[in-house]
Amino acid sequence: MISEEIFRAYDIRGIYGRTLTEKVAERIGRSIAAYLDGEGETMLVGKDVRHSSEPLARALIEGMLSGGIDVEDIGVVTTPLLNFASVHYGKTGGVMVTASHNPPEWNGFKIWLKTGFISMGMGMEKLRDLALRGKFKPASRGKFRKNPNAILDYERYVTEKISIEKNLRIIADPGNGSCSVLIPGIFEKTGIAVTAINTKPDGSFPAHPPEPSEETLTDVKRLVLEEKADFGVGFDGDGDRAVFVDDKGRVVSGTSIFTLLAEEYLKKYKGAPIVYEVSCSMVIEEIIKNYGGKPVLSRVGHTYIVDKMLKEKAVFGGEVSGHLYFRELYGFDDAIYACLKVAEILSRRDERLSEIVDSMPRYPRIPGKKFECPDEIKFQVVDELSKEFKEMGYETLTIDGVKVTEEDGWFLIRASNTQPLVRLTVEAKDEASLNNLASFAEKKILEKIRSIRKN
């Protein structure tokens, strides 16, 4: 009945009607109740705009109720809002029905508990085994209620933390995704003038795929220039990732936005910890140290970064992919809040975003080059390369794949958690060093894939 492949590294994800059906969703809800093993627990449930999210949420809720768990339905929201509300209201946790930036036919569940996100190595294996076994103890039925106030409570909490000091105009594109329920209203409440496009919630994502990128931000770039806006921003399908466009109509790297925010937090919180992940630019660690902060290294992924944020009492954290994490939001990542913070910073400074970005240090970089590699050997490839590099005397870090650091740069080799791929990221202090490191790493990856496939 349930395919094991839907249980991923950070969430549960499958294609609606095939690997993810209402029956599967109900079984997963029942498994969450068994995992919690106690009546009187209360879980929030939120959902994105996908057409399958409503029926899947209903089935998931039924499974949890039948397992003795109380459930509050907060409706169509962003993933950050669901996470925020689960902590803010003091609940056991929350389940977000979403497939984030995946195409419309996909859906899934992101599960947060007070102890952390359920992910591989942090409870996903236990939840998977409960769901696959499908044998549950009888339980008295949980109570159900709808909570219509979550969006208003979130808006109030977030906007009170933002102070815009001069007139700004932004272009915002929620891409018909979950951020559509908050945009443009949340920006207007803080005094920001906003031109918002693709604001009608629509799970078929008619304007463009629910993943902000150079291609999907074409209209944002055009409107920024036409309206002489201060910046533009595009959001992914469930609102946990934002990609920015500067006043010159250029997509801004995740490193630049991370740097901008890290500097601001360290000016306010001297010596505070900031969390970054293994594929982040050397610039990030240098900036944190230059401002007297404590750099805290993490594996890639919200599961691990939120865990580090809470354990280290970090004020801020981020990933180069555009996930940005905030202590004042209980350590969670939140794309809308990140956008409001960028606006707040710009409202206090005389420079335009383009001037700030152009003045930042940067190193040549090759981000995430992909190498096809069968699922059954991709982790073996990385493990064997890790041992090989260590034996060759290289300085290696193995908290997430294998990262080799040289005096003039580094490279990171990771197995994809979701696809039959090995990824290579390289960064160096100059182009010659970048090319040398990249060609060495690429040669090693291809040789290793060939050698394991032969055997």
How would you summarize the topology of this molecule?
Elements: E1 12-15, H1 22-36, E2 42-47, H2 53-66, E3 70-76, H3 79-88, E4 93-97, E5 106-113, E6 116-117, H4 124-133, E7 144-146, H5 150-159, E8 169-173, H6 185-189, E9 193-196, H7 218-226, E10 231-235, E11 242-245, H8 254-268, E12 273-277, H9 282-290, E13 294-298, H10 302-312, E14 316-318, E15 324-326, H11 335-348, H12 353-358, E16 365-372, H13 375-391, E17 395-397, E18 402-406, E19 409-415, E20 421-428, H14 431-454
Parallel strand pairs: 2-3, 2-4, 3-7, 8-9, 8-10, 12-13, 12-14
Antiparallel strand pairs: 1-5, 4-5, 5-6, 10-11, 14-15, 16-20, 17-18, 18-19, 19-20
Helix pairs in contact: 1-2, 1-4, 3-5, 8-9, 13-14
**Rg to the nearest angstrom?**
22 Å
Task: Determine the oligomeric state from the structure.
Answer: single chain
How confident is the prediction overall: mean pLDDT? 96
Label the structural class: alpha/beta
- Quantity of strands, as a count: 20
The biggest beta sheet is recorded as:
7 strands, mixed
Strand-residue fraction?
15-25%
| CATH superfamily annotation of the largest domain | Alpha-D-Glucose-1,6-Bisphosphate, subunit A, domain 3
> Helix coverage percent of residues?
25-40%
Number of domains: 4
The CATH architecture of the largest domain: 3-Layer(aba) Sandwich
CATH class of the largest domain reads Alpha Beta
> In terms of per-residue confidence, which ranges show pLDDT below 50 for 5 or more consecutive residues?
none
Query: Please, how many helices?
Result: 14
Give the overall shape.
Answer: globular
End-to-end Cα distance: 34 Å
- CATH fold-type name of the largest domain: Alpha-D-Glucose-1,6-Bisphosphate, Chain A, domain 3
